Amino acid sequence: MKYPRLIWAVFVSVASIVAVVGCSSGPNMVTGNSIHEVLDENVKAAITDPDRRREALAEVKNLADALDAFGVDFHDATSESLALNSDYNATREQFDELRKRHDAQRRGHMQRFMLAALGLRESVTPEEWAGLSESLDSLPGIQPKEDGT
Fold it and tell me: What is the pTM of this model?
């Protein structure tokens, strides 16, 4: 499945932030909940049609849930990797199995995230989508590049 460049950029940006910042704690932690709050507020402000608003809000929740699930699995993968690494007798096969299992989980989360992002995009107008994309800039650690990607 091919994903539009903007959706891919959003996933990579957010997933990277979750990987670096989200596994810590504190006020700058990016979570599905923080993304849900920002997008939820902006969807409610931007979309007046009740049916479209309801559809968009459902996709925002799906997006946030997917990101939170990714964060939990990433944290678990990190913990398991560190534990396996500390075992002097760990085998290459054990590391390979861990990598394969977590790669499959990551791909599943990415698919779920992308489908929710595509669903959200399909439920809004291009102008609304641009506004929602810009609203994510208010989250800690998310800064757009100079070229807008």
Answer: 0.66
